[in-house]
């Protein structure tokens, strides 16, 4: 198998395009199929429709199934429409059940049912089982292509069994041991199996301390467990401890990317609109609720400024520092928000460490505030020649940054305590709250010292 690098990628792409134009089936198959599946996908997505149609003719449904699995969902939808029914059905039969289930979950129900009817009954049944689980659970993301063995089998027999079953399994690095009722009782690594004497019984080499996940466990918790134990795969069991599937590390990578994208959308108040393929109308529809809510918060900010109208009329120069106070408060709070959300997502913030984290952020805010206060006091005094004004601005920044870090750190903790996703404590929300508090502090200090200005 050839893995392309930047030096030979263009060379292979040109060669493959030339074989397609020349309608050289054998040369195309020889060149294309020796590439890594990921490189096959990269080249395929660049092809024009007439070239793609020739690819379907030159590749068997089994060959093309590996390419289809590597495509993005939107690309899969478009490519599926170019395939004949017979070709598509055979392709789905050769795909892993979880990949078929993921695709069918993204298309219309009646179309999905039609695809299932045309598939092999055994393959279709496995896909239906996966689709029966609640979304974003271990059952919904697991694969049915795994190897299970009996504790009474000998090592030599199991190795022979692998020769037959391994080509259809998603991974064989772990072999799961089940009893006569298909309940999970142990696990054997491929390494332990290979070094065991040929006549050794599996029961004597298996580990009975199996870390498994329930089929209704949240996918993010599954990902955390696999990451924690550095597994290549984790067995999925029912409430009766029946082995029903496995979740592999490649699924975990997809989950972590999906969850990170979701959290990014929450923090930026753009949930569901971070995908560049989403239309402008859809993006606007998904973003507008937060924008409208924050707009009303902006009215509160305006009202705060209005309450100190007399102070502003007395010293107009105070208005020049409003953006500085607001921006500093929002930026500092967002930094603390990122620290808290990341800690909660990774599980590093626990019941006993919450106080420590909040105290650390408060200490950070104090030091940041002190540094900014000194810098601003010197700068404002030099520029405007007014040390009282410098004191007001500097002390306001000190108090604002100290409080902003605490708010940024505690709000997601409170939301998490309410069993909600802490990422919904979005950056714009924290920024707006800190803007309001920052202005209250600034104008309160300015009003108290107005007689000295």
What does this structure look like?
This protein has 453 residues and is mainly alpha-helical. It folds into three domains: 127 residues, Alpha Horseshoe (MgtE N-terminal fold); 111 residues, Roll (CBS-domain); 173 residues, SLC41 divalent cation transporters, integral membrane domain (Tetracycline Repressor, domain 2, Orthogonal Bundle), CATH 1.10.357.20. It has a three-stranded mixed sheet with strand order 1-2-3. A three-stranded mixed sheet has the order 4-5-6. Helix 15 links the parallel strand 4 and strand 5. Helix 3 packs across helix 5, helix 5 packs across helix 7 and helix 15 crosses helix 16. The longest helix has 31 residues. The model has no long low-confidence stretch (mean pLDDT 85). Belongs to the SLC41A transporter family.
Write the layout of secondary structure elements.
Elements: H1 6-21, H2 25-32, H3 37-44, H4 49-58, H5 61-70, H6 73-80, H7 85-93, H8 97-104, H9 109-118, H10 121-131, H11 138-141, E1 148-150, H12 155-165, E2 174-178, E3 184-189, H13 190-195, H14 202-205, E4 213-214, H15 219-229, E5 233-237, E6 243-248, H16 249-267, H17 280-307, H18 309-314, H19 322-346, H20 354-384, H21 387-417, H22 427-448
Parallel strand pairs: 1-2, 4-5
Antiparallel strand pairs: 2-3, 5-6
Keywords: CBS domain, Cell membrane, Magnesium, Membrane, Metal-binding, Transmembrane, Transmembrane helix, Transport
Membrane topology: Multi-pass membrane protein
Pfam families: CBS, MgtE, MgtE_N
């Amino acid at each position: 198998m050839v893995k392309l690098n930047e030096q030979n990628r263009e060379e292979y792409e040109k060669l493959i395009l030339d074989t397609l134009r020349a309608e050289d089936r054998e040369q195309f198959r020889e060149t294309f199929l020796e590439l890594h599946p990921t490189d096959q996908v990269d080249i395929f997505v660049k092809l024009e429709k007439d070239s793609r149609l020739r690819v379907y003719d030159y590749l068997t449904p089994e060959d093309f199934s590996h390419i289809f699995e590597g495509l993005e969902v939107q690309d899969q939808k478009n490519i599926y429409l170019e395939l004949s029914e017979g070709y598509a059905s055979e392709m789905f039969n050769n795909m892993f059940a979880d990949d078929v289930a993921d695709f069918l979950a993204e298309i219309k129900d009646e179309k999905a049912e039609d695809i299932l009817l045309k598939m092999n009954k055994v393959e279709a049944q496995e896909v239906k089982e996966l689709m029966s689980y609640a979304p974003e659970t271990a059952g919904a993301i697991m694969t049915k292509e795994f190897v299970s063995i009996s504790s009474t089998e000998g090592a030599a027999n199991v190795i022979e069994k692998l020769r037959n079953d391994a080509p259809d399994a998603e991974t064989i690095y772990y072999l799961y041991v089940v009893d006569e009722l298909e309940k999970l009782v142990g696990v054997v690594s491929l390494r332990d199996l290979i070094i065991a004497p040929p006549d050794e019984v599996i029961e004597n080499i298996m580990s009975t301390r199996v870390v498994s996940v329930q089929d209704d466990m949240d996918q993010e918790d599954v990902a955390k467990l696999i990451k924690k134990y550095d597994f290549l795969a984790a067995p999925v069991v029912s409430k009766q401890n029946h082995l029903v599937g496995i979740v592999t590390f490649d699924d975990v990578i997809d989950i972590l990317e999906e969850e990170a994208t979701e959290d990014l959308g929450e923090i930026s108040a753009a949930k569901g609109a971070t995908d560049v393929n989403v239309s402008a109308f859809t993006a606007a529809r998904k973003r507008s609720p937060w924008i409208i809510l924050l707009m009303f918060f902006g009215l509160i900010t305006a009202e705060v400024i209005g309450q100190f109208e007399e102070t502003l009329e007395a010293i107009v120069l105070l208005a020049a520092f409003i953006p500085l106070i607001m921006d500093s408060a929002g930026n500092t709070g967002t930094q603390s928000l990122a620290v808290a959300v990341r800690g909660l997502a990774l599980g590093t913030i626990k019941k006993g460490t919450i106080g420590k984290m909040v105290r650390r952020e408060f200490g950070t805010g104090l030091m940041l505030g002190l540094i900014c206060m000194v810098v601003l006091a010197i700068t404002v005094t030099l520029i405007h020649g007014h040390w009282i004004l410098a004191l007001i601005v500097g002390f306001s920044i000190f108090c604002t940054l100290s409080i902003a870090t605490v708010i940024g750190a505690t709000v997601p903790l409170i939301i998490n305590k309410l069993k909600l996703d802490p990422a919904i404590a979005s950056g714009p929300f924290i920024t707006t709250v800190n803007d309001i508090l920052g202005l209250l502090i600034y104008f309160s200090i300015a009003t108290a010292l107005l007689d000295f200005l």
